[in-house]
Amino acid sequence: MTGELSPIDKAKFAAAKRAANFVESGMRVGLGTGSTAAWLVRCLGEMVRDDGLKIRGVPTSTRTAELARQVGIEVITLDEAKWLDVTIDGADEFDADLNLIKGGGGALLQEKIVATASDQMIVIADAAKEVGQLGAFPLPVEVIPFGWQTTKALIEETLINLDVMGRDTTLRMNGDAPFVTDEGNFIVDMHLKRIGNARQLALVVNQIPGVVENGLFIDICDVVVIGHGDGKVEVRDINEGTVEEDRIDFLDNENLFADL
Ligand code: 5RP
Q1: For 90, which of 34, 109, 166, 198 could close a Cys bridge (C-beta 3.0–4.6 Å)?
Q2: Is the same domain home to 254 and 193?
């Protein structure tokens, strides 16, 4: 069955499966959004059904909420949870300091709120997401629809004074219409190619009226679990300064692939 999964999907699955081991009964868990996070939700669902794991999940998008309910995870809001033990989510890029670009799936606002409200944030990713310097992946900025063209122009003007290589911005589309986030906002993608000072950029962009939040996650992520297509996983903990290697056996997980 796993023969039908691409190496990249196997890598994402391996990372998600290993990260699910961080979750214990009684925890309030932030559930990320995207294809890697979807594997995590399926793994946790299996643990709920088969192993009696008792958790409450706070999803970061309507997509994730739907999947979590489907696989049997109790879903609560962040306001009900108030604070979370751990959030596990994917990323579009991560660097050596575990700073991230997120929002490729358009859920960066809820993802950032939920991750920030957690004792620990764990990122799950395939090895291709690791970069020397952030910025090759377009950095998403969530903006309110009112006056979005003016906000976009102000973002471009702001970029002139910042240490970035590219300054093009595009409104994210969904077919012929703007892509709309769960909060009813638009996304402007910034094609920066290389970000010299991510911390400064994140602060400055958020000062622009009309900008709700940007996809840079600085000093939020604690652990990255990197999956490989052969089942190898690497767990890097930035606070402990540790790196551990592990292996996921795909044959042990055939039932998780059966519904796909
Ligand atoms: C969604 C995100 C995702 O975590 C990010 O885009 C990675 O997605 P995938 O796991 O599908 O590669 O930030 O807003």
Answers
A1: 34
A2: no
Q: Which two tokens stand for residue 146?
A: 């009112």
Per DSSP bridges, beta strands 173-174 and 177-178 are antiparallel
- Same domain for 58 and 121? yes
* Cβ pair 27, 74 in contact under 8 A: no
pLDDT digits (tens, 9 = 90+) for 116-139: 999 999 999 999 999 999 999 999
Tell me: the pLDDT tens digits for 35-78?
Answer: 999 999 999 999 999 999 999 999 999 999 999 999 999 999 99
Q: Which domain holds residue 118?
A: 2-131+219-258
Q: Considering 4, 46, 66, 111, which one is annotated as catalytic?
A: 111
29 and 157 together in one domain: no
Q: How many angstroms is it from 47 CA to the middle of ligand 1?
A: 23
Best mutation site among 8, 35, 134, 225 for ligand 1 pocket (most ligand atoms within 8 Å of CB): 35
Pick the last residue of a domain from 199, 214, 229.
Answer: 214
CB 227 within 8 A of CB 5: no
